[in-house]
Amino acid sequence: MFRTYPAQQMHLQNMVDLHGLSPDRSKELVNWHLQTAQETNTKSIRFVTGRGNHINQRGERGTLYRNFLNWLTEEHLNIIKSVNKGDGFYDVNIKPRFMKKQFAISNLTEQWLQENFGSIQTEALQGGHNCQFLLAHCHQYGIGTTVNFKKAVIYYHQAVQHNNPCAQHALGGCYWQGQGVRQNDQKAIELFEAAAKQNFAWSLHQLGDIFYYGQGVECDSIKAAEYYKKASYLGLDIAKRKLAHAYFAGNGVEENKEKAFLLYKEVADNGDAHSAYNVALCYAEGHGVIENPKMAFEYAKRSADSQDPDGAYFAARCYQTGYGVIPDSELFLKYLTRSAELKFKHALFQLSLYYGAQGDEKKQLSFLIEAAEMGHIIAQALMLSFYNLHLSADQKCKITHDFWKQDDEELLSILHKLYKFTVMDAYIHQENLTKNQKKKIIRLLKTLAKEDEPSAFLRLGMCYMESDLVKKNLNQAEMYLLKGANFNDMNCHCSLGYFYEEGQAGAVDYQKAFYHHSKAAELGSANSQHQLGLFYLKGLHVKKDFACARLHFTQAVEADQSEKRFKACDSFFPQPPVFLHAAYCLGVLFLKGDVDTAFPSDSEKAVFWLIQASKVGHEEARSLLAKLEVPTDIIKLTPTLSHSIWKKPPVNKMNLFDLLKDLTNKLDVQTEWKMTKDDKAWCFLTPNDLGKIKDFDLDPIVIRKTKSGQHILLLEKVSCQNIDIFFQKIQEQCTLKLNNLTI
């Protein structure tokens, strides 16, 4: 940031293109350049106005060409030697300024400094202040000698005694960073101001940064804009870009997006890559200029080809969506990769999504980790919530620390609701929360609630009902859940159903519970369908009706499938799948029947549903099957319904241990899986378990015998793909074995 910059370059002729600009903007640019022409030793300026062939928005022709001479003030006329009118331009020749010859090192290279180090040192020792500055520069950056900050400061001080602006700026940088001297903000600012008084552009720019960010002084956007403006007068492109930022946002100056656009474009056309990206944004969003997708893409590509990460990301999205250019998947990936290589966090995250869609879990995880480490808040949330087993202790510590340091706006600005609440839930589910972290969570939830987000109402309701984030307050819980229910949110209705059913409001209220469960069931809630089944089974608030109970239990089973549940349920929603309970209730219904409601018993259907419940861990169903003396072969070969307990969930909800347990449940094997450091998973098999699975082709899982004579199931490489293959193979083999079985 504080590397010494060369003194002002000696200009022979400048060309300022006014064509296409407004008269006011053109006049301002003319004033800028004439105001500093002598100080920068500019001999001639060509102002291109155009010949007046085009008609502007007011229906006028040749305004710039005709009015140019009227813009020259008396002050400017005093420094002008002559004005020559050309075909669409004016050449303004500047009078030479009688002053001591300025020192310029704009054309000096590191190689030249190395080759001439000896003569520079000799002249510096003889008192030549320009060479004193050069010698200090060489000592500071190790050019022709070793790095020696203290010697650099000594020679900078000597050059400063001669009022050398380059040395003043460089010595200010040493005090600012504490290189060779004790760090001193005030001394640094004094030196920057001394150089700025001599119109040293980089010091003016530096002072702009100091006042803008409040470094060593109080923030003052007005002063910052003034310094950026002065540096812009002297032709410093980075200052023009920051002045454009000020006009765009109205920081320190009156907001003027047209001025901002013109400044961005001026600097972009001078080759500044990031300004080209800003121009692309202006064209894309119509800021200060008419929206133009084609021009937006052209400037984005120009920025990308100059290695700007934001520009490369913009160009990638253009190729992906066909914005301003023909869609091209290869070029999309090329520019997205380029942006990621430049460590742009959004590109890294998008690449993780891209490779996830391609099924390349290794690359997906690699880019996701890198995005998290670069500060992408969604990537951080995913790594801490779903993929934390893939993080080292140091990685987890750093990502967690950075995650909590994110500004509230980072979460609030996320457009995709699913991602927004994925981040929110990652905050909620972190362990060992501090008081300030708990306050942050509630503050964010209440801010989201002001935006009428039902998911925020749900979380606030659950927090006030049963979390330690805030003091328990059932009135507050009920209020927030009712607000969410007013937006017809399934999860809020379902939670209210349980709330009233369990008497959380003081007394059990089956009428309200039935109402909210009915609303949630209509919206697809498997849990509420199951509760309605219980209402009809037990005659709570409604007349006992086994047929209605059967209908709701069946709908609960059908609704409790992974795809439906994942789409319908909020990730924070704590209620477990209800397939096993609904299946058990169906088994009991068909087993007993009911004379009063004319509901017939059906032993075959009863056994089928009890087997379904037992296979996913319902102990009472297993006990009942044992009492009924149902043969083991029937239980083993009964087809298993595809439901949320063992069907592979979406990748971002994956828990490997749960999946492995689901696999053994599918084979009716009760065991505990363990994981080794090298990503191998294994579990013990009893002789009975071994008999259950010996006829199955288990690849990629294999059966191994240990030295002690015990058998284990072993998965050499734990991955979603390997587990998925196992699911499919077992399902196919189960289907083949069931061809001759009727339930």
Structure keywords:
4-stranded antiparallel sheet, 4-stranded mixed sheet, elongated, 743 residues, mainly alpha
Layout: helices, strands, pairs:
Elements: E1 13-17, H1 23-35, E2 44-48, H2 63-67, H3 74-77, E3 80-85, E4 89-94, H4 110-115, H5 117-125, H6 129-141, H7 149-160, H8 165-177, H9 185-197, H10 201-213, H11 221-233, H12 237-249, H13 257-269, H14 273-285, H15 293-305, H16 309-321, H17 329-341, H18 345-357, H19 361-373, H20 377-385, H21 393-405, H22 408-412, H23 417-428, H24 435-450, H25 454-466, H26 474-486, H27 490-501, H28 510-522, H29 526-538, H30 546-559, H31 562-568, H32 579-592, H33 603-615, H34 619-627, H35 632-637, H36 656-666, E5 674-675, E6 681-685, H37 687-693, E7 701-705, E8 711-715, H38 720-737
Parallel strand pairs: 1-2
Antiparallel strand pairs: 2-4, 3-4, 5-6, 6-8, 7-8
Helix pairs in contact: 5-6, 6-7, 7-8, 8-9, 9-10, 10-11, 11-12, 12-13, 13-14, 14-15, 15-16, 16-17, 17-18, 18-19, 19-20, 20-21, 20-23, 24-25, 25-26, 26-27, 27-28, 28-29, 29-30, 30-32, 32-33, 33-34, 36-38
What does this structure look like?
By secondary structure, this protein is mainly alpha-helical. Helix content is 59%, strand content 5%. It is built from 38 helices and eight strands. A four-stranded mixed sheet has the order 1-2-4-3, with helices on one face. A hairpin with a 5-residue loop joins strand 7 and strand 8 (711-715). Helix 29 runs antiparallel to helix 30. The longest helix has 18 residues, at 720-737. The N and C termini lie far apart (77 Å). The model is unreliable at 1-13, 98-104, 644-655 and 734-743 (pLDDT under 50).
